[in-house]
């Protein structure tokens, strides 16, 4: 295996947290795992970053000063350009109500702080796999639709040819 930066690149992750320590720790973990990592200190910066260059996955804190993570997620999911980006909430809020709210508004997953490094990595990997499979499914669906259209066209042409043949046969008798 070649260890070039391209070979190690696994995905583009946006980390959104107003706590610099959390940004540093998560960034270090994910960078060492081969991910390209971008950081945003607040919800407004995150929304701009997503419009500029959509990430593959977003790790999103909930409690932030300007726009909280729930609202950021709602805005992302309302925008056709960003609605398919998986959002993993990372928060100190560990009540079931908070977790359910995060998932209901469009979050793909929820990790409570303090987080375990391995858990973060595995959950990011899972979201990237789900996203990749979803893209492959859409591509397969498109190809099948094209194939169905071609077959329908071929069937119509065949029926037309059969009708012409019948008319020739019947007109000769």
Question: Your description of this structure?
Answer:
- Mean pLDDT is 91; it is low at 1-8.
- Helices cover 59% and strands 13% of the residues.
- The chain has a single domain, classed as Rossmann fold (3-Layer(aba) Sandwich).
- The chain is an alpha/beta fold and 173 residues long.
- It has six helices and five strands, in the order H-E-H-E-H-E-H-E-H-E-H.
- The chain has a five-stranded parallel sheet with strand order 2-1-3-4-5, with helices on both faces.
- Averaged pLDDT, please? 91
CATH topology: Rossmann fold
**So how many helices?**
6
CATH superfamily: Response regulator
Low-confidence stretches: 1-8
Task: Identify the notable features of this structure and list them briefly.
Rossmann fold; alpha/beta; 173 residues
Summarize the structure.
By secondary structure, this protein is an alpha/beta fold.
Can you lay out the helices and strands and say which pair or pack?
Layout: H1 5-8, E1 12-16, H2 20-32, E2 36-40, H3 43-52, E3 57-60, H4 69-78, E4 87-91, H5 96-104, E5 109-112, H6 117-172
Helix pairs in contact: 3-4
């Amino acid at each position: 295996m070649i260890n070039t930066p391209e070979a190690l690149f696994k995905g583009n992750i946006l980390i959104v947290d107003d706590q610099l320590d959390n940004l540093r720790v998560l960034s270090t973990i994910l960078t060492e795992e081969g991910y390209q990592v971008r950081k945003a200190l607040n919800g407004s910066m995150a929304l701009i970053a997503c419009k500029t260059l959509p990430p593959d996955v977003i790790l999103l804190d909930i409690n932030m000063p300007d726009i909280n993570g729930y609202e950021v997620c709602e805005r992302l999911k309302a925008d056709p350009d960003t609605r398919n980006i998986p959002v993993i909430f990372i928060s100190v809020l560990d009540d079931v109500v908070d977790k359910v709210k995060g998932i209901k508004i469009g979050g793909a997953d929820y990790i409570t702080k303090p987080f375990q490094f391995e858990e973060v990595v595995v959950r990011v990997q899972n979201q990237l796999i789900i996203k990749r499979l979803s893209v492959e499914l859409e591509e397969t669906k498109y190809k099948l639709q094209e194939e169905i259209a071609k077959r329908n066209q071929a069937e119509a042409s065949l029926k037309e040819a059969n009708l012409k043949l019948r008319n020739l046969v019947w007109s000769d008798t």
